[in-house]
Amino acid sequence: MGQMQGSLEVTVIEGRNLKDKDVVGKNDAYVEVYLDKDYKQRTTIVKDTNDPTWNQRFTFKLDKETDYLYLNVYDDDVTGRDSVGSAKIDLKKHVYGKPIYNTWVPLPRLLGLRSNGEIHVIIEHRP
Fold it and tell me: At 112, is the secondary structure helix, strand, or coil?
């Protein structure tokens, strides 16, 4: 397909049924969003819920071959962070050359047999 130009608008809407990583209380969840590990963007932390709402938009400039968008969900803790789950979205399959991609992305666990919850995202490619 060659190199994509333009920008990618990614809106992280909300999460649901996020797997509890805390022994006491609920997750203090945030999402890292990136195309390339050298440039990660992240949502704010939503405290004490397993169904957080972020409604945050991120823009990524497309300047090289980019096939996937990565989402990592973390529980912020005093001692650092715990991974709740992660997913990757195939941009060629779902986003490039298509209308807005609006979906719930599962966070698979244990070979995909179970779920650590889902993240609602809206992705739009702007050439």
Answer: coil
pLDDT tens-digit map of 51-69:
999 999 999 999 888 999 9
Q: What is the rounded CA–CA span in Å between residue 22 and residue 96?
A: 38
**Spatial separation of the C-alpha atoms in residues 59 and 127, rounded to whole Å:** 13
- CA 16 to chain CA centroid, Å, is 13
Instruction: Assign residue 91 a region (left: φ > 0; alpha: ψ between -120 and 50; beta: otherwise).
Output: alpha
Please provide residue 92's backbone torsions phi and psi, each rounded to the nearest 5 degrees. Answer: -65, -35
The amino acid present at 27, given as its one-letter code, is N
CB 20, CB 27: distance < 8 Å: yes
Residue 41 bridge partners (DSSP): 33
CA–CA dist 37, 116 (Å, integer): 23
Q: Tens of pLDDT along 98-123? A: 999 999 999 988 666 788 999 999 99
Alpha helices in 40-90 (DSSP H): none
The pTM assigned to this predicted structure is 0.92
